[in-house]
Design brief:
Elements lengths: L5 H144 L19 H64 L8 H42 L17 E5 L4 E4 L3 H25 L1
Antiparallel strand pairs: 1-2
Helix pairs in contact: 1-2, 2-4
Length: 341
């Protein structure tokens, strides 16, 4: 049967070849399509791998930035605490200086009142001395007229030898009191000048401290504002490089200014304390203490004016009593000065 139909076999064979050719062609086309899809998938996979690498790098950068931001937060918090402490310290120092200035003003007023009282006493003593001098002059003239009226009481004048007659007890006492009071008034005026000078210096220092405290408060407010900005930006993602650069530069400038201001404050406080200690130690209030007996009060009277020899005066006890009274009065004045101090 098969040998009888060779044409049928040939046609069947041709059909099979045509079908195989079409099938191979379709397979080749399908293979090309699959190869293109494979290339596309490989490209997509490569792009995704690159994106993963970029994302991992960004995550690492964000971790590092977060760590640096945490360090910045710690530094800002530390600076805030230091600024608070320094602000409280300067406020307490300002209050202390104000109290000291008020105390010095009260002391200056007390010294002025005491100086006025001493000046009034000096004026009274001068008036009393002039009155006594007039009375003594009248008595001396009266005694001279009475002596010259009696011939037996007339004496020859002493030769001019350059020696003055010894002062009377009242003159010595009044002169010593006036001299002591003048010295006290002079010392009090000197103390007033020193107090005025120290008061002006302290007022200037208080104004400087007030200005510094205001500046520190401004720095503290700016640091707190920067801290709040950093806290708000903690949860965000860094999208702009310029913002990161600007924030880093701002933190760096704040740190440099804080270090400079800290060193400057320490130097100024050390200089202020050293100048204050030097002023209190090297400029003490001058007081008339340790009074010595004047050389003019030797309780001697000339025996022979020509030879210049001396002997103990018969009024030595009276001179000593007078000197004790003068010394007691001056000690009372000194005790009053110490009570004021």
């Amino acid at each position: 049967m098969d040998s009888l139909n060779p044409s049928a076999e040939i046609s069947q064979y041709e059909n099979d070849l045509q079908l195989a050719a079409e099938l191979g062609k379709s397979l080749l086309e399908r293979n090309e399509i699959l190869e293109k899809q494979l290339e596309e998938y490989a490209e997509i996979n490569y792009q995704q791998e690159q994106e993963l690498k970029n994302y991992s790098k960004q995550v690492q950068l964000l971790k590092e930035f977060n760590e640096s931001r945490l360090k910045v937060y710690e530094e800002v918090e530390k600076q805030n605490n230091e600024l608070d402490q320094r602000s409280h310290h300067f406020q307490s120092e300002n209050e202390r200086l104000r109290e000291k200035i008020n105390w010095q003003n009260e002391r200056i007023e007390a010294l002025e009142r005491h100086s006025d009282e001493l000046q009034k006493n000096i004026d009274d003593f001068k008036a009393d001395i002039s009155k006594r001098s007039a009375e003594k002059e009248q008595k001396r003239n009266l005694h001279k007229r009475r002596t010259l009226s009696v011939p037996s009481l007339r004496r020859k004048p002493l030769p001019e030898t350059g020696f003055a007659p010894p002062p009377s007890v009242e003159e010595v006492r009044d002169t010593a009191i006036v001299t002591a009071l003048k010295t006290t008034v002079k010392n009090l005026k000197h103390d007033l000048k020193l107090e005025y000078k120290r008061s002006s210096v302290m007022e200037q220092q208080i104004s400087e401290l007030s200005t510094r405290v205001e500046q520190l408060n401004i720095d503290l407010e700016s640091a707190k504002a920067k801290n709040s900005i950093c806290i708000r930006d903690n949860s965000g993602i860094l999208e702009d490089d310029s913002y990161e650069q600007g924030s880093n530069e701002l933190v760096q400038i704040t740190l440099n200014d804080d270090e400079k201001s800290l060193f400057g404050e320490l130097k100024e406080m050390a200089a202020f304390r050293s100048s204050k200690d030097a002023a209190t130690q090297t400029i003490p209030l001058r007081k008339p203490t340790n009074l010595d007996r004047p050389k003019s009060l030797q309780f001697l009277t000339p025996k022979n004016p020509v030879e210049g020899r001396f002997e103990i005066s018969p009024n030595a006890a009276e001179y000593k009593q007078l000197f004790r009274e003068i010394h007691d009065n001056i000690k009372k004045a000194l005790s009053f000065d110490e009570a004021i101090d």
